[in-house]
Specification:
With about 120 residues, the protein is mainly β. Helices cover about 10% and strands about 45% of the residues. The strands form two sheets. The protein has a four-stranded antiparallel sheet, with no helix packed on it.
């Protein structure tokens, strides 16, 4: 069995949708038996560039062995996602394997910055 993160989500503290999702996940996880907590890797996205003057879109990609596990673009600014924001990658089953995380900032389609890291998600 391959070890892929089983849950990846982009969240923002002020998002009502995240609060509703968190509540529903918490209710689903209520049972007499508690499974051991899965390890997580939290990725913080922040910038000192002016939003939306310098950056209007953020793209986050998570890959493992060349396979895209997660990839999404987010509009940022007053009518979009607010920065700073976080990305949570939760460990999958089995042995951990390296993942590549890429965060790209664009303005009017032009790449402004690219940050990349290769790491593993802790199992616990």
């Amino acid at each position: 069995m391959t070890n892929l993160p089983r849950w990846i989500s982009f969240r923002h503290v002020a998002s009502a949708g995240v609060v509703a999702l968190s509540c529903s996940v918490a209710l689903l996880n209520c049972s007499g038996k508690e499974a051991p907590a899965k390890g997580q890797l939290m990725i913080a996205v922040q910038t000192d560039m002016s939003i939306p003057k310098d950056v209007d879109t953020i793209r986050v990609e998570v890959t493992a062995d060349g396979d895209m596990l997660f990839g999404n673009s987010y509009d940022v600014g007053p009518s979009g996602l607010r920065i700073p924001a976080t990305l949570a990658v939760v460990a999958g089953e089995g042995k951990s394997r390296p993942i590549r995380i890429r965060v790209m900032a664009r303005q009017a389609g032009k790449l402004r910055t690219l940050r990349e890291a290769v790491t593993t998600v802790p199992q616990d």
